[in-house]
Design a protein that fits this description.
- The structure is a single chain.
- By secondary structure, the chain is of the alpha/beta class.
- The protein has one domain (2-162): 3-Layer(aba) Sandwich (Rossmann fold).
- It contains 5 helices and 6 strands, in the order βαβαβαβαββα.
- It has helices at 27-42, 56-65, 85-92, 108-118, 154-162, and strands at 2-7, 49-52, 73-75, 99-104, 134-139, 146-152.
- It has a 6-stranded mixed β-sheet, with helices on both faces.
- α1 crosses α5.
- The two termini are 28 Å apart.
- The model has no long low-confidence stretch (mean pLDDT 95).
Length: 164
């Protein structure tokens, strides 16, 4: 199995007037992430499906990423919380030979990546995701059982979009 862990694109700033789960992407965030999706396409990063946090900015990012997906795009409340056994159970239901994207938030994506690669979610701070960044892992979605194949910052993905 391959997993692409994707941090949502740039969203409007935090505000007392807007609950955090309701913050949308900025126009700049949409433009930049659309270019990053094109960079992923150039890497032949087709997806079987996408799971995303139900928070608005993650759902909007997943919709932009859906240009690469053949299958379902589904919300998972497990991606709007620290990683745990419930998320692992959800991942276990995905096809073993497929490529799947998970769209979520920091610090939880860094914790998830650290947990899947090292078995220690506490190392997540050492694997920070920039907004729109992607980590590409392979293996079984169990603690310590995945290999980090690539960490792709958004700028690198946008540069790929310009090549070719």
């Amino acid at each position: 199995m391959e997993l692409l862990l994707v941090r949502h694109a740039v969203a409007v700033a935090r505000s007392d007037d807007l609950p955090d789960p309701d913050r949308p992407l900025t126009d700049k965030g949409v433009r930049r992430f659309s270019r990053e999706v094109e960079g992923l396409r150039r890497l032949d990063a087709g997806l079987d499906d996408i799971l995303h946090s139900p928070w608005l900015r993650a759902a909007q990012t997943a919709r932009l990423l859906s240009l690469l997906a053949d299958g379902a795009i589904l919300a998972s409340s497990n991606l709007a919380a620290p990683p745990g056994e419930a998320l692992l159970a959800e991942l276990a239901e995905l096809t073993d030979d497929g490529r799947h994207a998970l769209v979520g938030h920091e610090p939880w994506l860094g914790q998830l990546l650290a947990w899947l690669v090292t078995g220690n979610a506490g190392l997540g701070d050492s694997l920070p995701f920039k907004k729109g960044g992607v980590a590409w892992g392979a293996g079984r979605p169990r603690p310590g059982a995945m290999t980090l194949a690539a960490m792709l910052p958004p700028r690198a993905l946008r540069r790929l979009e310009l090549t070719g």
